[in-house]
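Entry 0007
Protein: Structural maintenance of chromosomes protein 5
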Amino acid sequence: MPSVVSSQQSRQGSQDSDNSKPEAPHTLTPNISLGRSSKLTIASKRPLAEEDRNGVSKAPITTESGSKRRKLTPDPDTNDNVSDDNEERSNRDTSGEDGARSEDEDEDAPHDKEVVIPVAEEYDSDDSEIGMADSLDKMRKTVEEIPHARGAIVRVYMENFVTYNKVTFEPGPSLNMVVGPNGTGKSTLVCAICLGLGFGPEHLGRAKDIAEFVKNGNDTAIIEIELKGSPTDEVNPTIRRMITRDGSTRYWIDGKEQPHRAVKQLMKLLNIQIDNLCQFLPQDRVVEFANLGPVPLLRETQRAAAPREVLEDHDELKRLHALEIGLEIGLEHDRQSINTMEARQKNLERDVARLRERQTLQEHIKLLVNSLPFVEFHDVKKHRADVKQQYSTCLAQLEQIRKEQEPQTKQIEQTEDQLKGIKAWLEDEKRDLMTFEHELRQEREIVNGLKKDEANAESDLDNLINSEKERKANIEKSKEQIARHERALADDPGKLDLSELNDKINKINGEIRASRGELSAGRASLEPLQAKRDERQSEIEQINKWISRMKNIAGQRVEALRKVSPESFTVFTWLQENKHKFKGRVYGPPIVECTVKDPGYQAEIESLFGPGDKFAFTCTSKGDFDTLMDSVYGDNRNGKGLGLSEVTIKYIEKELGEFPRIASKDELSSWGFDGLAIDFISGPSEVLSMLCNSIGLHRVGISKSKLSTSQHESAKTGKRMTKWVAGGVSTSIRRRPDYPAAETEISSYIGQPQFFKTVEADRRLIDEKIQQQNQLKAEIDEIAREISTQKASFGGLEERGSSLRAEKEALNKQKEDMQKSVNRYQKIRTILGNELQKLEDLERSGKGFKNKVAKQEAHALQINMDRVIAAVKLAERVREYVAQYGAMAATELHAIELSSNLQHYNSWNQSFKDRLEGKKKECEELKNLEKEIASRSAELRDRCRSLIATFSDEEKEKISENHSKKTVDELKAEIQQEEVRLEGIHEGNPHAIRQYEAREKEIKELRDLMDAKMADLDKHQTNIKRVRNRWEPRIDQLVGNISEAFSRSFEFIGCAGAVRIKKEGKDGCDFENWAIEILVKFREAETMQVLTAQRQSGGERAVSTVFYLMALQSLARAPFRVVDEINQGMDPRNERLIHKRMVKIACKKHTSQYFLITPKLLVDLDYHERMKVHCINSGDWVADDHVQDFKKYIEAARQQAAGA
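Output (C-alpha cells):
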C-alpha cells in the first residue's frame, strides 16, 4: 500500500465573516476504500473555522504518498519487471525508522510548521495480520531508500508565493503524482520549479511580469529548491530566489548570493531544460506542445533524450549544410560569371584582332610621317638651287623689256599734251553754252507765261458774262417769292388772347388734383392687402420648389445639406446665382454631385468621407479658387463676401487619370475585394479627382463580405493598400515613415448611410406642404375679393379723373393750334423782308456791266501782243545757239580722234608695262620663294636633327631607305593610302584590348577562386559526411527507440502508433528541415496517419502527446520531467489505461524523476511502490487538525468494505 506523507501549507482564505463562533464543531469525515488493486481515495471536508471567519486562514492539508504495489495476480504487462521487483524487495531492509510524528504534538503549533502524517500500509485481505505501524515503516523505508538521480528535485520550499504562505514539498525520486481540486495550487508548484531554477515566466504560458507571482499583501516571495548533487558533493546544491513586488530578483546558491548567470550555468551543468517542452510541460503550454511542428519537435527531442553532442552534431550539420549551399551557389554564380566573361572574350577577339591590325598600320603611318621631314629636306635643298638660277635669268629679261619701251613712251607724252589743250577749250565752250541754254529757258518761260495770262483774261471775260446772266435769273426768282409771301400775309390772325383758355385749363387741373388725392388715398388702403397677397404668393413658390426638390434624390441631398451644414447650403445657393463670376465650373459638395452606383455599397462608400470631404466645394482653376475664397470668407459688412467660416474649398490640378489603380480587378478579387472605392461611385471627374487626392478612393478596397484571416494578412502586408472596408468593418493601417516596420491597425464598424441613401420623399411632409399651399391660395382669393370690393368704392373717381384729363388735353391742343397760327404769320413776315432786301441787292449789282466787259477785252488784247514780241525774240536767240554749238561739236570730234590715237598708243604701251610688271613680280616672287625655301630648309634641318636623336637603328635604316628611294609626293601618297586603309578598319571599342587583357586576368583570378571554393566545398562535404556518419545512426537509433516505446504504449490501449524521422532534401542533406513525424491509428479500419491538429481530435492528440512523453521517459537525460494536466480531454477508459502505462514506465529502475499534475483522480487506478502521491487539500472544510492518523481511515474503509 502506498505511504502518504503530508506537508503542511498555509493559504490565505478568501472569505471573511463576522466574529461569531461556528454553530457545529469541527468534523472530519474520512471516506477511504481499499481494494485488491491497491487503490486509494481520500476526501476531507470541514466547516468554516473560527479563524476563517476572523480573516485568518487555517492551513489546508497537503498529503504526499509513496506507493508500493503488491498484487495476488501479476499484471501481464509487468511480467518483465516482476523478477527485478521481487529481488529488489528481498534485498530491501524493512526495518526503517519511523518518520511519523507523534500524535501528542501540540495542536497549537504554528501553521507553517511541517507536519508528517503517517498512513498505514496497504495489504490484501488474505495477508496475515501485520501491525499498522510496521507496515507504514516498511513502506516509507522502501520509498526513501530509492536514490534521487543527479539534478533531481529533493525539496521545494515556497513562501508568500502566489496563494501559498509557506509550504514545503519533498518529491520522490520516481513518479510524483500531484492531485487536488482545481484552484488548490497544483500548478503553483510547477511555477515554483520553473522560476526557482532561474527560468522566466514565458516558459509557463502565464503572467509575463515576475512581480505578479508575489502573493497579494506581501512585498517579497521566496522559492528555495534543493537538487540532488553528485556522489562527491558533501551537500546538495540549493537554489534560493527572492522576487520583489517591483519585479527585481536575487539569487543564492548554497546560501551565497550569486548572479543569474551562475544559476544558468548550474542548470546547464545538470542538464535541466525548463525551456524544453519535452522536459517541462506546464498546463498553459500543453496545447503549444501538441501543436509543436515536426522540425522543432526533433530539436526538443534531442535536447530531452539525447546526449548534448548529438544536438551539437545536428547544429553543426545544419551549419555545414548552409555553408555547403552557400559555396555551391557561389560556385554556380562563378561558373556563370566565367561563361559570361568567356562569351564576352569571344565577342572581343575580332575587335582585338582588328585593333592590333590598326595599331600596326598606325605604327607604319607614323614611320612614313617621320620619314617625311628628311625626304622633304632633300627636295627643298635641291629646289632652292633651282630658284636661285631662275631669279638671275628673270633680272636680265626685265632690263631688256625696259629698253624696248622708251620710243613708245615719248609718242604718248606728245599726244597727251595736245589733247589736254583741246579739252581745256571745250570745257570753256561748254560753260558758255550752258549759260546760253539757261537764258533761252528763261525767255521760253516768259512766252509761256504770257500765253497763260492770255487764256486767263479770256476766261475772266466769259465768267463776267455768265454771272450777269445768273443775276438776272435770280431777280426773277426773288420777285416770285415776294409775291407768294405777300399773298400768305393777306390772312392776318390778329392779336393772340389765351387768358380765357388758360383759366379753363387751370380750373380742370384743380379738379384733377382733387380727384387724384382721393384716388391715392383709396389705393393706399389697398397696399397692405396687395403686399400680403404677394407674400402669400412667394410662400407658394417656395413650397413648390421644396416639393420639386424632395421628389428627386439630388433635391433631398440639397435639403440634407441645408439642415446639416447651413453655411455650405448658403454657398451652394449663391453659386447657382453667380456662375458668371467664374471662368470654369465650380462643383458643389460630393454628397450633391456624386452618387453610389450600387445602393448596396452606400454605407461602405459614405464611411470613407470625413466632414470636410462631404461638404467640400471643388474648383478647377486657381483663379476661381481665389475668387470663391474671397467671396465666401470675405467680410460681409463691406459687401465683399458672405462672411462664412465653416466652409471647405479645395482646388484640384490633377486629372482623374493621374491617380492610377493600385491593382487590377482580378488581383482585388484574389485578395477578397469586390473592387476599389472608385469603382462604386460616379460623378464629375473633377470631384472624383479631388476625392482621390483627399481620401484616396483609388487605393481603398471594398468588400461586402468579411475577409478571411489570410486575406486580411495579405492586404495588411501588401503595403499597397492602407485602408479597406470589408464585412461592415473599416480597417486602416498606419505606418510611421521613419519606422516602416512599426504599424498600427485601427478597425471600426461602419454606420448606416445618411447622405447617399436612396429614399422616397416623406409623403406626410409633402402632404403637409400641399395643405399649407392650399391654405395660402385660399387666403390669396380672399384678399383678391377684398381688393375688388375696395376698388369698387372709388371706381367713379378713376372715371372722373379720366374725363378731366381728356377735357384738359383738348384745351391744350386748342391752345397749341392758336400759338402755331400766330408763330407762322410772324415767320412769313420775316422771310418776306429778307427776300425784298435780296432783290434790292441783285438790281444794284447789275450797274457798270458794259464798262467791265470793255475793260476786260482791252486787257486780253495787250497780253496777246506782248506774247508775239517775246516769241520772235526767242527764235533769233535759238539760231545763235545752234551756230555756237556746231563749232564746239567739230572741236569735240578732233578731240575724240586724238583720244582714240592715245588709247591705241597706251594699249600698245600697256603690253610692255604688263610684261615689265609681270617680270618684276616674277623676280620678286622668286626672291621671296628663295627666302621661304631657305627658312623651310633650316626648319627641316633642325627637325631632322631632333628626330634622329629619338629613332632606333631600325627606324633610321627604314627612314634612310625612304630618303633615298622616295620623293615627298610618293611618300605623301603612301601615307594617304595607309590612312585610307586605317579608316577602313573601324576602331569599334577603343578599350577592347585593355578590356580583353583585364578580363583574361579576371577569369584567371576567378578560376583560382573557384578552385579554392571547390577545395572548401570538398572539405565541408567531407566534414558533413564525417559528422553525419556519427550523428545519423545515433538519431536513427534514438527515434527507433522512441518509436518502439511509443508503439508499445499504443498497443497497450488497442491502437497503433509509430515515430519516424523525415529526412528532407536531396540524399537527406537538408538537415535544417529534418523532422519527427508521429503516426497514429485509433480505429481498426483506419490506416496510420500523421498526427496533426486538424486530423485528430483533442483527446486523441492528448493521448498521443502523453505516449510520446512516456516514450521519452526511459531515454530522457534530464534529471526530472514535469507534465501538468496532460490528461484533460481524455475519456475515462483511455485515461485509466494511460495512467497504468505511465505508472509502469515512470516507476522503472534508472528512470528520471517525473511530476504528473492532475486535478482529477479516477477510482481503481494502479499504483507502484516507487511512486509518491501528493494530495493538496484546500478550502473551507479542511480540518484544523494538521496531524492526522491515516490508520483510522484505513480501518474505517476496511469496515465499510466488509459491511458491503
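Curator remark: Residues 552-760 form one domain. DSSP finds 27 helices and 27 strands in the chain.
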